[in-house]
Each structure stands twice: as C-alpha cells, then as structure tokens.
Amino acid sequence: MTAEPSTPIGRPEPAGGGGLALIGRLAAAPLARLAAAYLLLAAVFAIAADHFLTTDNFLNIGRATAVFGIAALGLTVALIAGALDVSFGAVMSVCGILAAERIAAGDGAAAAVAVALAVGVGLGLVNGLLTAVLRLDALIVTLGTFSIFGGWAFLHTNGAPTPASDDAFARIGRGETLGIPTPVVIMIAIALVLAVVLRWTGFGQRCYLVGDNPRAATLVGIRAAWVRAAALAISGLTAAIAGVVMVANAGVANAGEGERQLLNAIAAVVIGGTALAGGSGLIVGTLLGIAVLGTIDNGLNLLGVSSTWQDVLKGVIVVFALVLDRIRRRDA
Question: Could you tell me if residue 37 is inside a domain?
Fold first, then answer.
C-alpha cells in the first residue's frame, strides 16, 4: 500500500493520483516562502527591538490581531468561492452594537452573543441572496451593503457609544484560556473548523471549483451562485464573532469601529496567498498573513514608528502580494 501524498490543510485533494504530489508542492511553496519571510521579519525585530522575543509580547500580538484575524478567516472562504466581501467591517459594527444593547438591557452574555451571531449570518445571507438571485457581482453588492449596514449603525446609535458592562461578556474579549488570550483561542478554533470544512467536505471542494471556474462548476451540476451565497453567510458569521470579541474587549460598542478592521483583514488574506479572483487559498496561509501583519505592527510600535508609516508599509506589502499572485497565475 502506498502512502497518500500530503497536501496543506485547507485545500481539498482533487480526484486522480498522478498529480497529487505536484499539486501539494505547488500549493505549499508560497506558504513556505511566506513562513520564511515571517521568520526573517521576526529575526530583524528581535535584533532591533528590545522585549520583542518575550512570551508577553507574543501574547500581545495575538490579542491585537484576533479581531481582524477572525473576520479574515471567514473572508478567506468567501474569496476562495469567488465572492469578495467588503461589508464585513460594517457587519462587525452592527453585531457589536446589538450585542452591547442586549448586555445593557440585562439579557446576559449568552443572549447577546446569540443575537449578534444570528444577525451576522442574516446579513451575510442578504449579501448572498442578492448575488444569487440578482446575479450581481459580490464586490458590487457588498460595497452597497457596506454603506447600508454602516449607515444604519450610525443612525441607530446617533453616533453615541453603547456600553457593554458584564463580567461574563468581558471575558470573551479580555479573558484567558489555559494562559492564552480567549480571543486567540476563538480564532484558532474557527481556523481549525474552516480548514476542515475546506479540506474534507463537499462544500469546501465546491468553493474551490466555483471560485476557479464557475461555468465549469455549473456544467457539472453545482449551483455556483448558491455556493457563493453560503460562503458569504460564513463571512457574515465570522464578522459577527469578530464584532462580539471587539466589543467585549473594549467594553463599549461604537458605530464605525468594525470598518477600521477592513484593511487589516483583507491584507491578511491577500498576504496569505488567497487569490482575489477566487479558486485558491488556504486557512493556514491566512493565519500566516495575520501573524505577519501583527508582527509588523508590534515591531514597529516597539521601534517608535508612527501608525501612519505602518499603514503605508502595509499598503506596500499588499500591493506586492497582489503582484506576486498575478505573476504566479500568469505562469501557471
């Protein structure tokens, strides 16, 4: 009996035997380069910045990246299916505000989380149904709903903060589990679930097929528009979770707060190797992208570099990652 060739977690193995090892190598190569780049980056900061190589500092990086990281994981699924969701930041704000209102009303943490997650899935389904029924591009739809959801958040709160004071709720954003920040544990748990879904389920395989070639997927009986709708619902769910974590950590919900996570989440997904055109990407790649962004922010903060220059650097990195993706696709 011959051993099965291994493929990176998060990508389904296509049918057929001869090309499996080659596909695995092709998928793994960008990840290996990204991992090497991260180690080099960490080494530079370890030399240049005092206190970088400490347990507390790496836990701080985890805390700082968990909110946009959770949103980025769901966005990865949507992008793989060929649906770019730019509304997730507004979904985060809406769900965070609704959770805070439940806390303020005395409903407790469980009810607040349940309401936020239900609304997040619902808003994701709104995006999905608009793309499926009206046959509109997901980017166009979610640009519109980004304004609708975000505008509602400001109108609903009149721009005023909504406090969320509850010990059990606060532990979601500020607590620890086995010495690890709870938001990081939540992010890792979501990553594992989504990696399994993409790697070992029929839905995950259909996401890759639809993102790569929707016409071919339709010809073999896959309802491409509805696969994308389901992927957008997943993006809505993770945006809601990110919104809950964000508010639980801050202790207050503000309209527009989730939108500030937009660039970081998209950057993490793109740096992690997920193609904006769809059809390729890995959850583990997004995790590496999250780690790269978190390390850059943390290291530059330790070196006293202003946040403006940090944003400039992240923008340059995103453009560079897009150029590499285009070159990789052209040569494929």
Answer: no
**Amino acid identity at 29:** A
Residue 172 in domain: yes
- What pTM was computed for the model? 0.88
3-state percent helix, strand, coil for the chain, nearest multiple of 5 = 75, 0, 25
pLDDT in tens, 82-103: 999 999 999 999 999 999 999 9
Contact between 80 and 247 (Cβ < 8 Å): no
Note whether residue 25 is domain-resident: no
Q: Residue 141 has which token pair?
A: 């739809």
Q: For residue 316, give both structure tokens.
A: 């340059």
Q: Which residues pair with 253 in a beta bridge?
A: 162
Given a contact cutoff of 8 angstroms between Cβ atoms, the answer to whether 285 and 30 are in contact is yes
Residue 128 sits in which domain range? 50-261
CA-CA distance, 180 to 110, in Å (whole number)? 22
Name the DSSP letter for residue 9: T
Residue 50's pLDDT band, with cuts at 50, 70 and 90, is confident
Q: Are 247 and 116 in contact (CB under 8 A)?
A: no
Number of folded domains that form the chain: 1
Pairwise CA distance, residues 243 & 121, whole Å: 13
